Amino acid sequence: MSLSTIEVDDVRHEFNSETFRDDYTFSNSPEAIARFPFPFDRDEYMYAVNIEQHMPGPPKSATEFPIDIDEHYVAEMADRARVLKEDPLRCQSLPHMLMAEWDLLDLLMTSMARDYPRWFSLERDGRKWHWINRPLGIEQRFVFGDPTTLPQGPMEYVTRQCQGDFCLLDQRDNNLWLDAGIVTSQADWSLDFDLGMNFIEWHGPVPLAHNMNIFDRALKFLMNLQQGRPVRRLNWTMTVNPRLDTSPENYHRWGIDRTTVTPENVGDKVHLRVELQALWRLPRSNAIVFSIRCYLIKMGELVTQPKWARRIHRVLRDLPPELAEYKGLTNYRAATLEWLSQYDDGAPTSPGFYPD
Amino acid sequence: MSDIKSRPIWGRIRPVAHAARHFVCCEGSSAARHVAETFSPNAEALKQVTILYGNTDRNEEAGHTLDALGAEASLHYPTRQTLLISFKAHLKRLHMGAQIYLCGPEAFLNEATAIAESHGVLKEAVQTELCGANARRVQCVHCKGLIENVAYTPIACEHCGVNLMVRDHYSRRLGAFMGVCVDAEAPGDLPARESF
Amino acid sequence: MAGESFLVRVTHADPVTTSVKRLRMQAIDGKTLPPASAGSHIILTLKTPNRLLKNAYSLLPSSLDGGTYEVAVLRTEDSRGGSTFVHDALSEGSELTISTPVNLFPINRRARHHVLVAGGIGITPIAAMAEELFRDNRSFELHYCIRNEPNGAFLKDLQARYGERVHLYHSDIGERFGVAKALPQQRIDTHLYVCGPEGMIGAVLNDASALGWLQENLHAERFLSPGGGDPFDVVLRRSDIEVTVGEHESLLEAIERVGVDAPHLCRGGACGQCRCSVVEKDGIIQHRDHYLTQEEREAGDAIMTCVSRLKGQRLELDL
């Protein structure tokens, strides 16, 4: 079912028309730059179990609401649809995860309709649900718990309409198991390969952190995650060109981009890629949803905030080589540093994430 | 050796005294001899032992050593594929209390453990021991093709032709190591070949 | 870190057997009680005349959809008086605080057959599991050990709904559930769940292990009531507070009484959340939990505050 063109047109202009591939027309408005979740609260970076309560942040910030919908929403959903059309294995769910899929649909629809009533609405009458998504022009009546009343499985249906990658983790045998997910805007990891792995296995390739027992501690913490008390953390990497789909599946196509950075094009081509990762305990399935919401910002956009410009220069300059290699920066770190150095006068930066 | 935590660590097979049934699946003559040595001192248990043997290196003598154990059943198969077809059929009929033992080359262990997992058998119910070549089973992350018995890295994918680095990252569900393009950022520039 | 809590009113209170009382609760603080997974429990805060008690009770099947929660409480002679309070003082209209559901006894959804074993009041989480598996059209069987039929809580409902899947064992005529006899030839992807008296849980787990079942396929809910003991003093070093733990009070309850927000989750010695470092002690720790390993117990430098105590005068904690 779809909505009338008039109702869709009413809200469509609130979203960017842009691409994350081919001609790469993606960019951030000044408002989007101001609310960018900059991940460094000091001039150096090292792993930490930097988990905090997923509490509402300041108005207009990326954490004002549990699920953040921004100006890139419509374009990101179009990019996701294209990825899925070309490779259906980016969305998979093992058979025992259906209850968790319904839990996820409930969480996302409830949050989006409550926090963005202009764009989304949800009416519930017992198991009969009625969902309206104005930006994408979708209207759907369905029976909660009956997958035959939706065009796709509940996880795929709702996440085709929500920014961010989502993984569903089953809790059993004193571990968390990555048993379902939709992953189309990932920083170089494969859902198809990692599906079915436990928490320690799927973080296997991350350097340094295992020796620090980071994952053992994080696992113990997450196993005790409680309903109504979601948590979040920020993670980051760099991406050449504003490409959402930096998957290993397509690495043989996009990897070459990393060799195209020159001191002249750093500002437009090199992007800081921040993941706002959040975790919720789900009520019916006792599973955990792990959301990975990707934010991209061009170096040229980032340096409009002088504090961020100085700090990103220092963080990249002092990054341990193993981490630079793992994050795939080797080929363009030098050019990026050279370009950023013009924005770093050596002045001290104030503590905390926010711009001055 | 890499410290990637997903990399499988094979153990040693040791008959579990209180198991209600022992189910052995082995490939190759060196594995067969090792199974025979391991089980022969446990004669009283052999009434509840089923042995499947993949005679992949055409060694009848090793097969006879297994037969001589006097297990309840000792069955021989000519290839890995026929061995694993039978393994699946037997798995479906196993009951709680059974202990599974897998012994053979790396690529055999990769595939057989994934089959056991797909049948709902917990990894704790499966003992493994590497006996034979350590050539790996690899999945090309780009075209998803599986490549059997990969002895070194890098290797050209036999399905799509992309030059792959074989990583230590391992999927128990797929029973395979990950192969990922090695020259994406410098086409044609391949690192020196390394055997496993 | 404490989870969300709800203020609820008892909307229904009725006897299920002569010794088991059922409470139905609904939120009155504007929130809606969320759905729950089978095997979950909630913590009831009970304002008894003498002290504040926090007891864990498993949610009944009717709680799975949320909106209302139900628990069933057996009257016992425990020294703390929690069950006596529920039976004698709580009725329709009573208000109390409950925690958000926590599940430390979840169904393993990968299993293709489920064996549920309950003894007495242990039926409460087991009945919720049966209902979830039934709704999901999963393969399961339920073994229920009772003294006699009038004593079997929810027996008629279970038999009416699950039919031949329900197997009964009457202890007053000497019937006993035994793994070897009751569960021959279970398919290899079976999981077993048991809840009941400590002795029964131990027997079932031991029998199954002896038959070659793996620990990973066996699941038990062993909720402990903190139990009492001699009073002792506890010093909370970081908070710089000293308090006496009463004979009918748990260490955790005493810590909470003086306003310190100590970590906890299950309050039954199972989850490990309340583990606390011991700085100094002048006696022996009575470990009553199911969490610490034998080595950790012997080391004596950690205590689970929800159920364990000091046999001595003074305990100093890093809190």
Describe, in plain words, how this protein is organized in 3D:
The complex is a heterotrimer of chains A (356), B (196) and C (319). Chain A is an alpha+beta fold. Chain A has helices at residues 5-12, 30-34, 73-86, 98-115, 154-159, 191-194, 199-202, 214-223, 251-254, 266-269, 299-302, 306-317, 321-326, 333-341, and strands at residues 52-53, 91-93, 120-125, 128-133, 138-143, 165-172, 175-182, 231-240, 270-281, 288-298. In chain A, the strands form two sheets. Chain A has a seven-stranded antiparallel beta sheet. In chain A, strands 3-4-5 form a three-stranded antiparallel beta sheet. In chain A, β6 and β7 form a beta hairpin. By secondary structure, chain B is an alpha/beta fold. Chain B is built from four helices and twelve strands. In chain B, the strands form three sheets. Chain B has a five-stranded parallel beta sheet with strand order 3-2-1-4-5, sandwiched between helices. In chain B, strands 7-6-11-10-9 form a five-stranded mixed beta sheet. Chain B has a two-stranded antiparallel ribbon with strand order 8-12. In chain B, a hairpin with a 4-residue loop joins β10 and β11 (176-181). In chain B, α3 packs parallel to α4 (106-118). The radius of gyration of chain B is 18 Å and the shape is elongated. By secondary structure, chain C is an alpha/beta fold. Helices cover 18% and strands 34% of the residues of chain C. In chain C, strands 1, 2, 3, 4, 5, 6 and 7 form a seven-stranded antiparallel beta sheet that branches. In chain C, strands 10-9-8-11-12 form a five-stranded parallel beta sheet, with helices on both faces. The model of chain C has no long low-confidence stretch (mean pLDDT 91). Chains in contact: A-B, A-C, B-C. Chain A binds chain B through residues 89, 173, 190, 192-197, 200-205, 210-211, 248-256, 258-259, 331, and chain B through 3-7, 117, 122, 139, 141-142, 144, 162, 167-174, 178, 180-181, 184-187.
